Amino acid sequence: MGHDCQTGRVVDLEELKVPKAMRLIVDEIVAVSDAVCLQLLDQEYADLARRAVAKLARKRPSPLRSGTRKVWAAGVVYALGQANFLFDPQTRPYATAEALSEAFAVAKSTMSSKAKMIRDGLKITYFSAEFLRADQIAGNPLIWMITIDGLPCDARSLPVELQAQVYQLGLIPYIPAWGPGRRPGQKAGQG
Question: Which of 7, 56, 92, 159 has the most beta carbons within 10 angstroms of its beta carbon?
């Protein structure tokens, strides 16, 4: 679930297990989303967009087989922006829906309706750690809530050994004591 943006690189599509039959389509969509994200937003948005496009490509049948590539790219970034408060002027990066629409050369209404389809299909919400920026994950207390013996508990307050166990169960996006870039079995500083 971690973001490779922590290591200073955009995640490679090979790592995302894109089916070979979908590779050309995904490459075309990602070329568009990468260009806009790296120009208008940042590397973390480019990484999240790649992850979302790859997940759409793995669906059977993949919805990416039909439709315009730039509309898919715009819809993915718009959906991610909605979940990550991109359109809130208090957040960074910040962009308006109009600026995204212009950058992708796609009508705002088209981009918005494609984003809804993507949000519904991938279940992208404010609580979907898989599609949230690191700052949104860190600042969202509900992502860290687990129950132990029926009692709610913030996983960030647990001892690191328990955090690791809860992470291994897939209940939290990363081990809070280690930060978002490190995995169990990985030494500090390895990427």
Answer: 56
Same domain for 103 and 149, yes or no, is no
What totals of helices (H) and strands (E) does the chain contain, helices first?
A: 7, 2
Same domain, 8 and 85: yes
Instruction: Give the CA count within 13 Å in the CB-facing half-sphere of 32.
Output: 23
State CA 25 to chain mean position distance.
19
Distances (CA, A) of 99 to 36, 77, 89, 102, 111: 10, 12, 13, 5, 12
- Do 56 and 17 meet the contact criterion of CB atoms below 8 Å apart? no
Judged by DSSP in three states, 146 sits in strand
pTM over 0.70: yes
User: For 33-67, how does the pLDDT look when each residue is reduced to its tens digit (9 = 90+)?
Assistant: 999 999 999 999 999 999 999 999 999 999 999 99
Element (H or E) spanning 145, and its range? Answer: strand 145-148
